[in-house]
Amino acid sequence: xxxxxxxxxxxxxxxxxxxxxxxxxxxxxxxxxxxxxxxxxxxxxxxxxxxxxxxxxxxxxxxxxxxxxxxxxxxxxxxxxxxxxxxxxxxxxxxxxxxxxxxxxxxxxxxxxxxxxxxxxxxxxxxxxxxxxxxxxxxxxxxx
Length: 144
What we know:
- By secondary structure, this protein is mostly beta strands.
- The protein is 0% helix and 40% strand.
């Protein structure tokens, strides 16, 4: 009989993998308390234009990371991200982390001019995070 390991429950894998149709490939998602921490996260790959249009805020800090998909040069984003924070328009063309304070209205986020796949990593300082839902079909049409 093999002894059960005390900390095996800390290693999460298959149960976090999800198919989300508007992202490329599979996503890794922990939005429902799976991390057993006051944090939630999701990893997605994006290879075509997409936008998240509804301005909103959260009662927690959120970090949205836009990372170039080439592991030898993650700073080469290979895309353009138009990001609104508190109504201000910001254009991101190299890998970056957008640190959003609690209560700050953000969005729309428009990811366009994608030359190669990018990584979109969400980290939220809350145990449970419920996304508003899928982008509208017209929001992820080609080109923007």
